[in-house]
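$ ./design --mode recover --in tokens.txt
reading tokens...
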């Protein structure tokens, strides 16, 4: 899958990106917001290469996937954007998510990439896309609002800890374009 926006290319992760992936995933300020439990930092380049392979596997069933976000003007990978089935999903609920290198925060890349991936998901027939975050991850929740998602409060469903819960339907997406 390749998507282009005004400033970004959303594409599969490659092994050429492994050093940058390691730089992103070895930072506590990034991984503390990912998943359940204690943050797990990426340890070395071998692990980064294994993760690239895992992302390719997770991207094998369109429209789902785990992609790199590259700045078109510079070729720098700033982070990831994903569209995946939520863990422990009972009805195939799909989650959008993102995580960026701290040197790329505050430039609007997460919102721009997420909008493109929402369009990709809805164009492929998804009826609804969900976003969840740690309850105190206010920057991510701001992105959720900026891309047109509705705050549904707190949910204790897909992850071990309570999550901030946002949704957008295909109809809401098309009406907001």
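writing sequence...
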């Amino acid at each position: 899958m390749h998507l282009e926006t005004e400033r970004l290319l959303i594409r599969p992760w490659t092994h050429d990106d492994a050093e940058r992936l390691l730089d992103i995933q070895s930072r506590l300020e990034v991984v503390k917001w990912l998943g359940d439990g204690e943050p797990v930092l990426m340890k070395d380049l071998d692990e980064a290469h294994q993760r690239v392979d895992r992302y390719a596997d997770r991207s094998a069933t369109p429209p789902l996937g785990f992609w790199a976000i590259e700045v078109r003007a510079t070729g720098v990978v700033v982070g990831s954007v994903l569209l995946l089935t939520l863990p422990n999903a009972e009805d195939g609920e799909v989650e959008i998510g993102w995580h960026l290198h701290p040197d790329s925060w505050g430039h609007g890349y997460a919102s721009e990439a997420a909008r493109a991936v929402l369009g990709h998901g809805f164009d492929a027939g998804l009826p609804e896309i969900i976003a969840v975050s740690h309850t105190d991850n206010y920057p991510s929740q701001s992105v959720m609002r900026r891309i047109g998602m509705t705050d549904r409060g707190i949910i204790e469903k897909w992850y071990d800890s309570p999550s901030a819960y946002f949704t957008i339907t295909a109809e809401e997406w098309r009406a907001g374009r």
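exit 0
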